From TrEMBL:
<keyword id="KW-1133">Transmembrane helix</keyword>
<dbReference type="GO" id="GO:0016020">
    <property type="term" value="C:membrane"/>
</dbReference>
<feature type="transmembrane region" description="Helical">
    <location>
        <begin position="347"/>
        <end position="365"/>
    </location>
</feature>
<feature type="transmembrane region" description="Helical">
    <location>
        <begin position="272"/>
        <end position="297"/>
    </location>
</feature>
<dbReference type="GO" id="GO:0006629">
    <property type="term" value="P:lipid metabolic process"/>
</dbReference>
<feature type="transmembrane region" description="Helical">
    <location>
        <begin position="38"/>
        <end position="56"/>
    </location>
</feature>
<dbReference type="InterPro" id="IPR044851">
    <property type="entry name" value="Wax_synthase"/>
</dbReference>
<keyword id="KW-0808">Transferase</keyword>
<dbReference type="InterPro" id="IPR032805">
    <property type="entry name" value="Wax_synthase_dom"/>
</dbReference>
<keyword id="KW-0472">Membrane</keyword>
<keyword id="KW-0812">Transmembrane</keyword>
<comment type="similarity">
    <text>Belongs to the wax synthase family.</text>
</comment>
<dbReference type="Pfam" id="PF13813">
    <property type="entry name" value="MBOAT_2"/>
</dbReference>
<feature type="transmembrane region" description="Helical">
    <location>
        <begin position="6"/>
        <end position="26"/>
    </location>
</feature>
<feature type="transmembrane region" description="Helical">
    <location>
        <begin position="62"/>
        <end position="81"/>
    </location>
</feature>
<feature type="domain" description="Wax synthase">
    <location>
        <begin position="223"/>
        <end position="312"/>
    </location>
</feature>
<protein>
    <submittedName>
        <fullName>Predicted protein</fullName>
    </submittedName>
</protein>
Amino acid sequence: MPERHSFPWGLHALTQCLIVLSITVSSSKTSIWTRWSIFLPIAVTSCYLVCYTSTGDVVVDQGLGTAILIQLMVAVDYILITDVQRNIYPKDQPPRNKGAEVDMSLMKRFRRALSLYTNPRGIGWSFEPRTLPRPSTKPRFAFVSSRIIRALASALIGTFASVMINSNPALSGITLSVKDMGWFHHTTGVFAFALNAIAQINTIHCVLAAFCVGVGISGPEEWPDLFGSPFDAYSVQRFWGYADVASGIASTTKIMHHLCGHKNPPLSNKPYTALVFLNTVFLISGLVHVGGEYMMLGRLGSSLGAFRFFLLQGLAVSAETIVSNVLSLSGSSLASPGEAALPTPKLWTRIVGYVWVLLWFWWSLPFMVDPGILAGAYGPHRGLTFERLSESAVNV
């Protein structure tokens, strides 16, 4: 196991600044050698942060490791692949004006680069997915107030989920897998894990939205909900796409679009090509999440849980597409995130879909959960449990 150093927050911030500056100065006139000379220090630094440093908290390490590799994927896209100044433009800009801002001022390029770097979903840009939740139409004060309330509610839900996790014996290290202590602890364990992750991500998103809109950096329309309605997630494909639960996957999808040579390939008309494309997206997403698992464990886990989890998601969507096409179910085609939503299938089909999605994640989520058990990320030593809360209530 390599020696781990204290995580250098300053170096991490410097790397992010370097990416933004690189996006600012890069253009079609920048040679490939210059692009690589800019990118390589970012790549080396990112690998160093993931492989040789630690914050001392395994949960923080897991999130940081994933975020750093997502940041690296953004650098790959904007520095090595995409001509940001010509091929990315505001979505309301007429196509005939595309690339008209090549000679814009340095300050405008910097603001553009900062917006792109902090906006992986591409909200307001030409690559914005059409499946995003509808933007808010609330006035500024009402929007900020609603996001503060949502942040508090999400934080409360996350606290409850954290207590559930710490109280679950299947997650405390007694066994190596959440599946080893029966269906009850398995079910409550993966449910609490998912609920806690969603609550934490939503809390951060709401706080950032309230701050940016409150101080005038952006408008309410630029902060649509991070998650779509759970009632739309009646297939694994819709869970990851239309429910909009993986901005990291959205970023890798855009990279694949650029590598294929077009912004929105007609996936629904080429099902087999689409399946290869989609599985490659999940492959890249799995590799990104390996960074979090490596940083958390301090080594490459033997199970590669996160990598296997994301590979399985691609296989599940592939199986859904093939089965639904054979059965000719409504909404069976594999749609690109940039295309309009397919017709909603009948109620009975959606009910079967909800059951399928729940069972799928009940079975596949342990691949993501189990490495945390090995790292000691859960259990009574991490914080409050129901037992401690009940003892405190009795003592009061």
